[in-house]
Every structure is written in C-alpha cells, then in structure tokens.
Specification:
This protein is an all-alpha fold. It has helices spanning 10-13, 35-52, 59-76, 82-104, 108-125, 133-157.
Amino acid sequence: MTAKFKTIPLNVAATLPRTLGPPPKALPSDFSPTAADARSLYRSLWRVGSLSIMYSNPGHKVIREKIREAFEESRKNPAKTPQDIKEQWERAFNTRFFFEIASTRFGVEHRVISNMCVVTAEKNKGTTRSLKPAVIQNQKEVEREYTKVIHALNESMRLSLR
C-alpha cells in the first residue's frame, strides 16, 4: 500500500518556515499588551493561518473571518482581570503555534484546520432547497457534536479555535 503525500505548490513551499520555532513560553506576570501588540498578533495569526491551509479558497477567507470575529468580540467584551488577559494571549500564542505546526507538517493539525474551514464554508453557504425535518435534525446534531469537539480541543490544548 503506497502512501499518498500531498504535494505542496511552489508558491507555498517558498513561504514555509524551514524549521519550526520553539513553542510559546509562558507570558511574564507583568504582561500588558498594547494596541500594536494586538495588531501584530492579528496579522501573524492571519498570515500563519492562511499558510496552514496553503492559501486555498474558501479556507483563506474563512480564516480571515474567524480571526476578525474573535478580535471584534474581544474588543466589544474585553477581559477584565489581568489573569483573563494573560489567558487570552496565551491561548492566542498557542493557536498561532498550532497554525505553524499545521503549515510545516501536513498531519493531524493540518487536517483539523482544513476540515474546520470546509465545515464553516459549507455552513455559511447555506441551502437553497427545503430539507426534510429528519435531515435538519441530523444537521443540528452534527453541529452540536462538532462544537463539542472544537471545545474539547480548545480546552485540552489551550487553543482559541472557533
């Protein structure tokens, strides 16, 4: 049985990091992010997130929308305590590292991100025809299970996937 390897397009291969950087370290206790730090994090999440799905459509757009939603939500409902702020930023750095892993190794991490993008794109597309109640019920059950899996993944790996 031969293994099928995913070929990397040349334009993407040129942008891949040669080696995976060190995992994110714990933030210092006196960490206080600035607006410039938030912009930098937004851009790096978008860049590495897009790279993790090899700039494919609609994945590139889905990554952008999810990151934008997360940052807008945190702007509307900012974390109150320093511990919450630190937790938010640690999760963001862990998510960035998860994206980096997904962009360098086409393994489980890459499949998770790709599948999340496909599911979100299909959900955003909607249906143009009426569905039977049983099919609608099945879709709701699948969506509930999907949400539980993403939540469990976030909690176990301290990520901020949506």
